[in-house]
Amino acid sequence: MATVKNELNVYESAAARFELAAQKLSLEPGLYKYLQHPNKEITVYIPVGMDDGRLEVFIGYRVHHSIVRGPCKGGIRFDPGVTLDEVRALAAWMTWKCAVVDIPFGGAKGGVICDPAKLSRGELERITRRYTAELIDWFGPERDVPAPDIGTNEQTMAWVMDTYSMHMRHTTTAVVTGKPFDIGGSRGRKQATGRGCMMVCDKALEHLKMKKEGCRVIVQGFGNVGSWAARLMHEAGYKVVGVADIHGALYNENGLDATKLMDWVHVQRKPLPEFPQGGTKMSSTDVLFQPCDILLPAATENQITSKNAHLVQAKILCEAANGPTTALADDILEKNGVFVIPDILANAGGVTVSYFEWVQDRMGFFWRENEVNERLQDVMDRSFNYVVRYAGEHSVQNRIAAYMLAIDRVATALKMRGIYA
Questions:
Q1: CATH number of domain containing 167
Q2: Which residue of 103, 155, 160, 354 could cross-link 177, Cys pair, CB 3.0 to 4.6 Å?
Q3: Residues 154, 270: one domain?
Q4: What are the tens digits of pLDDT across the range 103-135?
């Protein structure tokens, strides 16, 4: 069982799982110390002229966890709750996520403490450009390749790419992923994380000998990842019975039309709980514990904890968000027979297609969307099979198997490279 002092500290949860996986692997003490710590942590103070004439200073972070298998890769989030511990944990998760799906990146993560909902477009652009300028020596296609995360989007990445390109004196599309298609983005990138979640759910049903038709799904979080996961699964024959966002949740045992709901929320900009073809209204937390076959948390960290894990009624937990389950909840879920598809596998569709985007930018040749999706299917299917087989061979939970597989791949690369001194 994981040992953590503060269950809701995501860095402690990540460290506890790393420790358990490293023990199972009998990882050499020196390698343990090396992989336990980030490569570097950078704090920047971002002065921004606000629309009302004030000068405000925002705090930003960028953490490079590993460069052993390739350039750093990881999102930038704009959120009032950003902390250095959170960014550290997310950077480490990116290292393991890239290794699980066997793409040649290490992990990074960044964040700025701000509330995008309270900032104008001009203020967001100035924050983004100054943040990029402060980190210009660390960004680059061969160094660190950012992507969108909570509170950021395609437009944010366009600003990062343009700022970097202006400093370099030439257009460098491969410095970020998740860009608009017209400036080097990849077809299929927007849907990739949600599509990857559906792909591993398909594999889980096959593994557990369950049928897709009528399979009840609850999705918590209706941003880009959750809404696309819900829509794609609905269109593929799953029965989406519950959805939630920051405004609240709907539960309908007869099913919800996720395609119409996505239009209601993202096109018409109306509150999710007011969807006219909805069901029973409840809180975004309560919907997690309603009857379903697949629970797909796609919101934020620490949704399922040691205090509520026993309430989960799902047969499959597919972690679309990063860190939605605390380390102390893992054993409860295992005891109750919940089949967990861990975050570093479940939501790796996004970074996989980000890798495809980076490759396409560097080649200057872009693939059709069906090619992107076929390549993504191959990666997700193969990675799921590896993790499940690893779990069986080592008699561990899927999560620890995913960590073991990832740590083993990074450690192997590190031993081959050696330590430069």
A1: 3.40.50.10860
A2: 354
A3: no
A4: 999 999 999 999 999 999 999 999 999 999 999
158 and 206, same domain (yes or no): no
166 φψ region: left (φ > 0), alpha (ψ -120 to 50), beta (else)? alpha
Using the Cα atoms of residue 300, residue 183, residue 191 and residue 247 in order, give the sign of their dihedral: positive
Assess if residue 333 is contained within a domain.
yes
Dist. CA 157–CA 223, nearest whole Å: 17
User: Residue 66 has what DSSP assignment?
Assistant: -
Residue matched to tokens 């049903």: 205
Kindly state the tokens that stand for 332.
């409860």
8 Å CB contact between 216 and 296: no
Distance in Å from the first CA to the final CA of the chain: 37
CA distance 196 to 212: 16
Q: Which tokens in the block code for residue 348?
A: 């790796």
With a pLDDT cut of 90, the percent of the chain lying above it is 95
**pTM recorded for the entire structure:** 0.95
Nearest to 259 by CA among 298, 296, 228, 231: 231
Residues recognised as catalytic: 109
Backbone angles phi, psi at 175, to 5 degrees: -75, -20
Q: What is the per-residue pLDDT for 3?
A: 66
Three-state DSSP state, 266? helix
Given a contact cutoff of 8 angstroms between Cβ atoms, the answer to whether 404 and 335 are in contact is no
Spatial distance between the Cα atoms of 17 and 165, rounded to a whole number of angstroms: 39
Contact indicator for 137, 106 with CB cutoff of 8 Å: no
